[in-house]
Design a protein that fits this description.
CATH topology of the largest domain: Transferase(Phosphotransferase), domain 1
Strand order of the largest sheet: 2-3-4-6-5
CATH superfamily of the largest domain: Transferase(Phosphotransferase) domain 1
Number of domains: 2
Order of helices and strands: EHEEEHEEEHHEEEEEHHHHHHHH
CATH class of the largest domain: Mainly Alpha
Mean pLDDT: 80
Number of strands: 12
Structural class: alpha+beta
Strand content: 15-25%
Radius of gyration: 22 Å
CATH architecture of the largest domain: Orthogonal Bundle
Largest sheet: 5 strands, antiparallel
Length: 382
């Protein structure tokens, strides 16, 4: 059971033309709240909540439930409360999915990269569930990219990717598959935007475990967001066949799609998805997704190769989350060392009074050096 329903999101429910997704931990940023009538909010306030929880406002509402900001008197913290309405037609399945989500959140409680669980319960007649978790004061990555995407540089893109990769590493090591990795499920805390160390993405977390599954488990239907799924899962959806067991490699395919959007090539992903959906429906082969050269030449060739390998139809060839974490940490460290050397050289030049706003990012420039030529050779080889 998931909390997404859109033209490209599936979780067993009917496809709709409306985007009505609800995050497992919604952001508390002004203007991001859903418009919910006061009488409906009052019903939530009067529901079977513990007395120490005071619901304050609704953050989001969708076809499967809602998320509310609340204040916990016991812990004296702001929290998010996810209210899930189980479908009368699929009560047992929804209850099972609820228990899985809670189990995953508890099992991953020590991870610094996944939204944390505080407590959960079902109502008296078990027709719905409640999950209390940390409230994210900020926005999701999809909203951030809509607002600032053109300003994200190479270093910040890699830092965002590193945080997501670490979240997936923790999930996969614990035996879980997220199944709905996308920008809308990556949350960014406001505090991360003003980090004293210059790492503006120090508090980025993966959210919404509503479609989580154990590795290799039996599943009856495709779940997640089609635009971020491997071809075999899209095919299962289009042709209504039973999907294969969930694998960590499914998440890595989606991770690379998220990175494509973060790195400024979301338009390529959109076009590719429209084409591949049509071809898969017609039973035709699909060309592998690739970065456009104007984007690829800006980043290290090893990162481009690793991300493109995540889109291989052979899941065994896709990098693991552990391998992506190792690569991103190495590239970020290399860039940091290069910038430090460049800073020393700049400080030694007393005659250089160039304004910071016009300074050249030497690390980024070095990183891109000679990559274009190697990229052309690689593409000719492909």
């Amino acid at each position: 059971m998931g909390l997404t329903a859109s033209t490209t999101s599936v979780a067993g429910q009917s496809m709709t033309s409306e985007n009505v997704h609800v995050k497992s931990a919604c952001t508390g940023e002004a203007g991001a709240e859903a418009t919910v009538p006061e009488e409906e909010l009052q019903i939530v306030r009067d529901a079977l909540f513990p007395h120490d929880l005071r619901v304050q406002r609704t953050l989001g509402a969708g076809s499967f439930g809602s998320v509310h900001a609340a204040y916990c008197d016991q812990t004296q913290n702001d929290v998010a409360v996810k209210v899930i309405d189980f479908s009368p037609d699929d009560l047992e399945e929804d209850r099972r999915a609820f228990r899985l989500e809670v189990s995953a959140m508890k099992a991953l409680g020590d991870s610094d990269f996944i939204v944390s669980h505080e407590r959960s319960w079902m109502n008296a007649d078990k027709s719905g569930g409640y999950i209390v978790m940390e409230l994210v004061d900020g926005q999701d990555l999809e909203e951030y990219l809509d607002q600032y995407g053109h300003r994200i540089g190479q270093t910040d893109a890699k830092r965002i990717g590193l945080r997501i990769a670490k979240a997936l590493r923790d999930m996969h090591r614990a035996g879980w598959v997220h199944r709905d990795v996308k920008c809308g499920n990556v949350l960014m805390f406001t505090e991360s935007l003003s980090d004293d160390n210059g790492d503006i993405f120090s508090a980025v977390k993966l959210a919404d475990l509503g479609l989580v599954a154990t590795v290799g488990s039996k599943v009856e239907q495709v779940a997640g967001t089609l635009d971020f799924m491997p071809n075999n899962l899209v095919s299962s959806w289009e042709h209504e066949t039973k999907p294969p067991p969930p694998r960590p490699s499914d998440d890595m395919f989606a991770f690379a799609c998220v990175m494509m959007e973060v790195m400024g090539a979301g338009y390529v992903l959109d076009h590719w998805n429209k084409t591949r959906r049509r071809r898969i429906k017609d039973g035709k082969s699909v060309e592998r997704l690739r970065f456009p050269e104007d984007i690829a030449e800006k980043f290290h060739i090893r990162l481009i190769d690793a991300l493109e390998a995540c889109w291989d139809d052979d899941r065994r060839k896709r990098p693991t989350a552990v391998e992506m974490v190792s690569l991103l940490e190495e590239l970020i460290e290399q860039q940091s060392d290069t910038k430090s050397q460049a800073s020393i050289l700049t400080d030694a030049d007393d005659d250089n009074e160039e304004d910071d706003s016009t300074s050249i990012d030497i690390a980024d420039q070095n990183e891109a050096g000679c990559i274009a030529e190697r990229l052309k050779k690689r593409r000719r080889h492909d």
